[in-house]
Amino acid sequence: MSLAASSLSSLRRQLTSGDITARDIVEDVIAQVYTRDSEIGAFISHNQESALAAAEKADLSLPLGGLPIGIKDNINVLGDPCTCGSKFLKNAYTAPYDATAITKLKASGAIPFGRTNLDEFAMGSSTENSGIQLTQNPAAPGHIPGGSSGGSAAAVAGNLIPATLGSDTGGSIRQPASHCGVVGLKPSYGRVSRYGLVAFGSSLDQIGPLTRTVEDSALLLNALAGHDPRDSTSLNEPVPDYTEGLDKGVAGMKLGLPKEYFTDGICPKVRERVESAAKKLESQGAEIVEISLPHTDYAVATYYIIAPAEASSNLSRFDGVRYGNRTENPEDMLALYKDSREAGFGSEVKRRIILGTYVLSSGYYDAYYLRAQKVRTLIRQDFQKAFEQVDAIITPVAPEAAPKMGAAAGDPLKQFLADIFTISANLVGNCGISVPLEPADGLPVGLQILGPHLGEQTILRCARAVEAG
Fold first, then answer.
1. Residue by residue, what is the 3-state secondary structure of the chain?
2. Which of 149, 172, 188, 424 is catalytic?
3. Choosing from 126, 130, 148, 424, which is the catalytic residue?
4. What is the arithmetic mean of pLDDT over 356-379?
5. Residue 363: how many CB atoms within 10 A of its CB?
6. In the annotation, is 86 catalytic?
7. Is-catalytic flag, 280?
């Protein structure tokens, strides 16, 4: 097995024992990317010289010393391009600073390597909305890798790199992790700094890891978590060691199955895999109980008012003036704005900007945006009541395994519904993880484990129990 296909924990042991060097790992990652990524399309760009230089100086005494990590291309890395998967920023923007997540990775000894593909500005659930390139699902060629962190998931699933960072606004880490057969963790809102993440939905976005194992997710969360004064939403709370207690098992835990998540719309084989996982957890000593999240039916509508509204505001900065591509020879300033945005943004981004601008406009704000925020509160209360009864909640990640590429082309509603089981965690700010189950008809399937706010230790422990079988 190549070094790039190994887990972080395995590589760490080999590094500290002197069996390999950090340069060995980086060189193997480079070789895998050059040899195989032309078929996958996971990476948009990479700088092998800087990665090799960092490997030569790697401090192996640090928790992630010498380990390369791929970075989703909406997280700023000093000196690297940051396209957000958009023509608007392609060849037009180089990051002048490190995001806090990158600063923390470097402080832990990790080596940021390359920029992974995504749906444009993280808006999508298939990575087909990228304005740069298509990404294949290495675990199921011809099928989507999921999105918007599809490049990050595909890079790990394709054995190009041991781990990556993604961002999750409505399921964009967990859903591609499920579709590609890797582990994807969305931390609680405020647990990981958003400073340096190009904003899509500011009250929803969260950076998190995609890895081969649950232990690797815990290792990366140890590095990423913590207070950041540059992010006003960052929590000033103690950070535990997330690797502690991973193997304690689920005996004595109470796990909830929300009846609203097991509807006729789920692929029967996906439902079968999830219910089988619940039975295995029960056999390991967990108590499985049915719970209700009664406002689940309103989650998609609520999300697709709030997220586009925030996107409309956040993307107003891309106007052709300060940075990014601009139209040539505009007639006037208004034409500069309009023409630059028309040429720079793809159809999905335009759709969400238009929708978001509409729900924030005079005469419609109260009818849509304000009402959505009230429903968001009801959904949050549902989860608060549920977590008074159970330690964690187990659900499918997506209604079906990875669809074939192009299956939802021209059908935005179908794409929106792909996130039906993941968006609630973003609306309420809770943590969630996708852990691989047995494939269905050769396609990866993930189990979603949702925890209360700052309940990462609980969901990691449950995920490890699933992983261990």
1. CCHHHCCHHHHHHHHHHCCCCHHHHHHHHHHHHHHHHHHHCCEEECCHHHHHHHHHCCCCCCCCCCCEEEEECCECCCCCECCCCCCCCCCCCECCCCCHHHHHHHHCCCEEEEEECCCHHHCCCCCCCCCCCCCCCCCCCCECCCCCCHHHHHHHHCCCCCCEEEECCCCCCHHHHHHHCCEEEECCCCCECCCCECCCCCCCCCEEEEECCHHHHHHHHHHHECCCCCCCCCCCCCCCCCCCCCCCCCCCCEEEEEHHHCCCCCCHHHHHHHHHHHHHHHHCCCEEEEECCCCHHHHHHHHHHHHHHHHHHHHHHCCCCCCCCCCCCCCCHHHHHHHHHHHHCCHHHHHHHHHHHHHHCCCCHHHHHHHHHHHHHHHHHHHHHHCCCCCEEEEECCCCCCCECCCCCCCHHHHHHCCCCCHHHHHHCCEEEEEECCCECCECCEEEEEECCCCHHHHHHHHHHHHHC
2. 172
3. 148
4. 96
5. 6
6. no
7. no
Count of CB atoms within 10 A of residue 238's CB? 9
Cα gap 235→228, rounded to integer Å: 8
Has 186 been annotated as catalytic? no
Please state at what angle helix 456-468 crosses helix 214-224, rounded to 10 degrees.
160
Query: pLDDT tier at 265 (50, 70, 90 boundaries)?
Result: confident
- pLDDT digit string (tens) for 115-156? 999 999 999 999 999 999 999 999 999 999 999 999 999 999
The two three-digit tokens of residue 397, written as one number: 């990640």
What CATH number is given for 3-224 in this structure? 3.90.1300.10
pTM metric for this prediction: 0.97
Phi, psi of 420 (to 5 degrees): -60, -30
Handedness of CA 120, 122, 124, 130 (dihedral sign): positive
Q: Where are the domains positioned within the chain?
A: 3-224
The token pair at 339 is 């023409």
Tell me the pLDDT tens digit for each residue of 325-345: 898 889 999 999 999 999 999
Give the side-chain half-sphere CA count within 13 A for 133: 19
Between helices 150-157 and 22-40, what is the axis angle to 10°? 120
Per the listing, tokens 């697709």 go with: 304
Contact between 127 and 118 under an 8 Å Cβ cutoff? The reply is yes
Residue 145 phi, psi dihedral angles, 5° rounding: -85, 0
Terminal CA-CA length for the chain: 23
